[in-house]
Write a structure and sequence with these properties.
- The complex is a heterodimer.
- Chain A contains twelve helices and 19 strands.
- Chain A has helices spanning 20-31, 54-65, 100-112, 131-139, 171-176, 182-194, 207-211, 214-219, 228-237, 248-261, 277-291, 406-413; strands at residues 6-16, 36-39, 51-52, 81-86, 91-96, 119-120, 126-127, 147-149, 152-157, 163-166, 270-273, 295-297, 303-304, 316-320, 323-332, 350-357, 368-374, 377-384, 396-403.
- Chain B contains 15 helices and no strands.
- Chain B has helices at 14-40, 45-57, 62-74, 81-99, 106-118, 124-137, 142-158, 162-182, 187-204, 207-227, 232-243, 248-268, 273-289, 296-312, 317-331.
- The longest helix of chain B is centred in the N-terminal third of the chain and has 27 residues, at 14-40.
- Chain B starts with 13 loop residues before the first helix and ends with a helix.
- The model of chain B has no long low-confidence stretch (mean pLDDT 90).
- The chains are: A alpha+beta, B mainly alpha.
């Protein structure tokens, strides 16, 4: 609340950062009757999970370059360019801006419609069936959120000439998929049928098969799949990532979860939130927290001191620009920690890219999930349009992310 | 409609029972009035209005629909083209309102056909759009498909050139492709396709082009069979396609191709019921027109397949035993 000074006010918990996880925790604590102070360093909710307009995105990117500890903070690089679609071949070509003038013009075009964009820093989808959606529905935040279904799941393979193919999700899709051979269609239908039975991985109770990789089990009899359809199942549906190779049991479970999610709200397995999933979920939970009595401060850089006092009298002191507060416990987004370290494991890092296009190659009013596979590594892509209010009508945005450090993944993302 | 559950009837409250009783009373009174007028052959605007009210309440009274048609024909306005057009357009709008109460009503569909036949200047394009919309709600409604064929036929009559008529055929053919892609088990769509194929073949012209058309059909059939080998539609269309071949040589070749295709499928999936039955039936058909092509080994294979079917498809044991017996007798095995 503007103008109010906090003069050493007591709270039970101080939460630092308004990402969706912190927001959920804050709202849960407030719901249980704790006094909660929720602080966010940015002027917007969501922290590093926010949805931003292009101008806010540029602000955010430049603010990071002045941050104290560069190791913790996401590294951001910006490119401007032109996108052209060669209509005859249905290929998308991107050209980097030749000079500063072109770049400036492209940027100006973007900023002209600044408020029509909601670009996500960490885009997320929610599966139609599962703990996540149940949490959202159970907490009652459904009232604050709107979703659109993900209309298609595509697999992109093909080395030097990548091709995007729609992953068939039903009998009709299989029938109409011209890129599948007749035999592949039969095998796929058999696989979909087998998923209905309880445990399809260990038909003969073979333990070695259970630990074998999903991909290898699908490649062997009786499935004997290969090529794009194998990639589609392993990466597109079961969502195997760099972190580890899925075992057969995990893979089949993942496919079952995917298929089980279909039909609940429509033909799709995933939902995409309007205006940006993480940001909207974070805001929704913050709203719930405030309704339950939580106090909110945005655009504030709190200074946390080591706790003073012993046992039940132990308190943290929080210094604010105008005022101070004390709390028994502190919950924080890791980037607020004074002495945080970066994990040495490259797989614990996620590299992202986003690309705003002047056209809508996969349809003007749709959302699509795509997976680009090369050499056993996958990049997840999310295509969003006006349908989820991410960009103005006629344009689209493609998000990409993959596990690994930016330096290593840069070429892959390009 | 297909695939929709019927809603179970609920027990009525006292108020509802009274309302229902009054409704029934009104209905019976109206019904009696109309039937009396019909018996006396009264053809006036008032009786027309009475039939309108009655049919709104109960769309299935086919004698009343008959009576209504008689009234129309006996009104003086009927003779004037302009007035008839206006009356019938209103009638079509009325039908559109009430057809949704029972989308499978023979009487209402027939009445619509009658109205269009009697219209001085029918709007065929509009009707086509209407039936397309209906089929988007219920793609397997045979009334809709029948009606579509009627509309298309009349539309073609009203066109001037052959190319225009061919275009209509082509777009209808494409419509069936669309419908089959949406649901490969849509029997009505396959059936309609079979009605259109001869015209398409003829338009194709030379033998080479006709082969192309046939190849596309076979691709589609195999697509359906591989996607779901137990669904009858692909198989039935296949049978029909082979049946209409006039050339004996061509037929032989196609039957052999069919056997090869089924064998490939069975390689992939051994105990697949329908393909196995089709294998036997195809070999039997082949033996009839070209006995030299089906040797003793093939015949024994048929009997062995039937035996295997008796084991895996116990519901139809009797049928397989029957087939075995008659084949053994015919082939002397």
């Amino acid at each position: 609340m503007p103008g109010d000074l906090l003069e050493n006010e007591e709270f039970d918990v101080v939460v630092l950062g308004t990402g969706p996880i912190e927001a959920l925790v804050a709202s849960e604590l407030a719901d249980q009757g704790r006094r909660v102070l929720h602080i966010e360093r940015s002027p917007h909710y969501g922290g590093h999970y926010a949805s931003l307009t292009p101008s806010a995105l540029l602000d955010w990117a430049s603010s990071l370059s002045t941050a104290r500890d560069r190791r913790l903070v996401p590294r951001v690089e910006l490119y401007c360019g032109d996108a052209a679609i060669a209509a005859e071949e249905s290929r998308l070509q991107l050209e980097k801006a030749e000079d500063a003038e072109q770049a400036r013009m492209a940027l100006a075009g973007l900023l002209e419609n600044d408020r029509s964009y909601a670009l996500e820093l960490a885009p997320r989808l929610v599966r139609c069936r599962g703990k996540a959606i149940d949490t959202l529905v159970g907490a009652g935040v459904g009232e604050y959120l709107q979703f659109r279904g993900v209309d298609g799941n595509y697999i992109i393979t093909g080395g030097s000439q990548p091709v995007a193919r729609r992953v068939p999700e039903s009998k009709e899709d299989v029938f109409a998929a011209s890129w599948l051979s007749l035999i592949e269609k039969r095998k796929l239908m058999r696989l979909l049928g087998a998923l209905d039975t309880a445990s399809s991985t260990d038909d003969d109770g073979d333990d070695s098969k259970r630990d074998a990789s999903f991909a290898s089990v699908l490649a062997a009899r009786p499935y004997a799949l290969e090529g794009p359809i194998l990639d589609a199942l392993v990466y597109g549906v079961a969502r195997q990532g760099r972190n580890r190779v899925l075992t057969a049991a995990e893979g089949f479970d993942a496919v079952r979860r995917y298929v089980g999610a279909m039909g609940r709200y429509g033909r799709m397995a995933y939902l995409g939130a309007l205006h940006g999933g993480c940001s909207e979920v974070a805001q929704a939970f913050c709203r719930l927290c405030a309704v339950s009595g939580g106090t909110y401060i945005l655009d504030e850089r709190p200074v946390l001191s080591s706790p003073a006092g012993e046992g039940s009298a132990r308190r943290f002191d929080i210094q604010l620009r105008n005022g101070s507060a004390r709390a028994r416990s502190v919950v924080m987004d890791p980037t607020y920690a004074p002495e945080a370290t970066v994990s040495a494991d490259p797989a614990a890092t996620v590299s992202r890219a986003l690309c705003v296009l002047d056209a809508a190659p996969f349809g003007d009013d749709s959302t699509a999930l795509l997976t680009y596979v090369a050499d056993g590594r996958a990049v997840s892509l999310l295509y969003m349009t006006h349908a989820t209010m991410a960009v103005p009508s006629g344009q689209s945005v493609v998000y990409a992310w993959t596990e690994g450090r930016l330096d290593d993944e840069r070429t892959l993302l390009k | 409609m297909h695939g929709r559950r019927r809603q179970a009837a609920k027990e009525a409250t006292v108020d509802e029972k009274e309302q229902n009783r009054q409704r029934v009373e009104k209905y019976c009174a109206l019904n009696d009035l109309v039937m009396q007028n019909k018996a006396q052959g009264v053809y006036t605007r008032e009786t027309l209005e009475a039939t309108h009210r009655l049919l709104e309440l109960n769309t299935e009274l086919h004698t009343v629909w008959n009576y209504r048609r008689e009234i129309f024909a006996n009104l003086p306005e009927w003779q004037d083209d302009e007035q008839r057009q206006a009356m019938l357009e209103k009638e079509l709008a009325f039908l559109l309102e009430i057809i949704l109460k029972n989308i499978k009503s023979y009487w209402m569909w027939y009445h619509r056909v009658w109205a269009l036949r009697s219209l001085p200047t029918p709007a065929w394009k509009g009707e086509l759009a209407l039936v397309a919309k209906l089929l988007s709600y219920d793609a397997r409604n045979y009334h809709g498909w029948d009606y579509r064929r009627f509309v298309v036929a009349r539309m073609k009559e009203s066109l001037d050139t052959d190319t225009q008529r061919d275009d209509v055929d082509a777009s209808e053919f494409a419509f069936t492709t669309d419908q089959i892609n949406k649901d490969c088990a849509n029997h009505s769509a396959w059936h309609n396709r079979s009605k259109l194929l001869p015209a398409i073949m003829q338009k194709a012209g030379g033998a080479l082009e006709q082969q192309e058309v046939l190849k596309r059909e076979f691709d589609m059939i195999l697509n359906a069979i591989y996607t779901d080998p137990d669904d009858q539609n692909g198989w039935l269309y296949y049978d029909w396609l082979l049946d209409v071949q006039k050339d004996e040589c061509e037929k032989q070749k196609l039957l052999r191709d069919k056997v090869a295709a089924i064998r490939e499928l069975l390689d992939l999936e051994e105990d697949s019921k329908r393909p196995m039955v089709e294998l036997v039936e195809t070999l039997v058909a082949l033996e009839k027109i070209a006995p030299h092509l089906v040797d003793d080994e093939r015949k024994k294979e048929c009997l062995a397949t039937l035996e295997r079917l008796e084991q895996i498809d116990t519901y139809h044991v009797g049928k397989y035993r029957d087939m075995s017996k008659s084949l053994s007798m015919r082939w002397g095995l």
